[in-house]
């Protein structure tokens, strides 16, 4: 069972990212999220994490699948993947210092630029799929000694999807 959630919050052609001050991805820009607490569904978890990390109270997020990882020197794991949108006229001022790091708006072009080494290395692989495709996927990333060495997009089956969302951590 996956223990983490992550959300990418968009507003027009920009995305709200967190430059993390702690591992994993320390010093890199990434989405907002964290651990699923006992008794929470993944959706409840991400709405809480968004509220705690950004002070935004969102009513809705879209489930976009999962990101999983494995490899030498890496504990196998994964996270539920979400996407949220803020209205164009909503003002959310950044940069904003929070406990986990710094929140700031970044352009999608900047985030997805192949020369960009400032974002978590797996984002350029799964973010375009999240934004352009309707399907739900397991975005599996392979790492060796902390470096990403491979990516595979695997369609999620309806059984995997239905079992992922309603379950609460710690329940059978």
List the helices and strands and how they pair.
Elements: E1 4-11, E2 14-20, E3 29-30, E4 32-35, H1 42-54, E5 62-72, E6 77-85, E7 96-98, E8 101-107, H2 108-112, H3 123-132, E9 137-144, E10 147-155, H4 158-164
Parallel strand pairs: 1-6, 5-9
Antiparallel strand pairs: 1-2, 1-4, 2-3, 2-8, 5-6, 7-8, 9-10
How many angstroms separate the termini? 10 Å
Low-confidence stretches: none
Give the topology string: H per helix, E per strand.
Answer: EEEEHEEEEHHEEH
Mean pLDDT: 91
> Can you say what the CATH homologous superfamily is?
Nucleoside Triphosphate Pyrophosphohydrolase
Shape: globular
Class by helix and strand content?
Answer: alpha+beta
Q: What is Rg?
A: 15 Å
Strand content: 35-45%
Q: Count up the helices.
A: 4
Question: Sheet with the most strands?
Answer: 10 strands, mixed
Helix content: 10-25%
Structure description:
- The model has no long low-confidence stretch (mean pLDDT 91).
- The longest helix is centred in the first third of the chain and has 13 residues.
- A hairpin with an 8-residue loop joins strand 2 and strand 3.
- Strands 1, 2, 3, 4, 5, 6, 7, 8, 9 and 10 form a ten-stranded mixed beta sheet that branches.
- The termini are close together.
- By secondary structure, the protein is an alpha+beta fold.
- The protein contains four helices and ten strands, in the order ββββαββββααββα.
- It has one domain: Nucleoside Triphosphate Pyrophosphohydrolase, CATH 3.90.79.
- The radius of gyration is 15 Å and the shape is globular.
């Amino acid at each position: 069972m996956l223990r983490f959630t992550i959300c990418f919050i968009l507003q027009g052609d920009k995305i709200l990212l967190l430059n993390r001050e702690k591992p994993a991805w320390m010093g890199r820009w990434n989405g907002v999220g964290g651990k699923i607490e006992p008794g929470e569904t993944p959706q409840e978890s991400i709405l809480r994490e968004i509220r705690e990390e950004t002070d935004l109270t969102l009513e809705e997020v879209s489930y976009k699948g999962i990101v999983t990882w494995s490899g030498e020197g890496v504990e196998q794991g994964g996270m539920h993947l979400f996407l949220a949108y803020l209205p164009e006229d909503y003002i959310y001022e950044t940069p904003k210092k929070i406990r986990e790091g710094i929140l700031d708006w970044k352009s999608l072009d900047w985030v997805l630029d192949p020369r960009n080494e400032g974002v978590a290395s797996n984002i350029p692989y799964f973010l375009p799929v999240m934004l352009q495709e309707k399907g739900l996927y397991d975005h599996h990333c392979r790492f060796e000694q902390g470096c990403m060495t491979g990516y595979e997009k695997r369609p999620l089956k309806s059984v995997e999807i239905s079992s992922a969302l309603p379950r609460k951590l710690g329940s059978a």
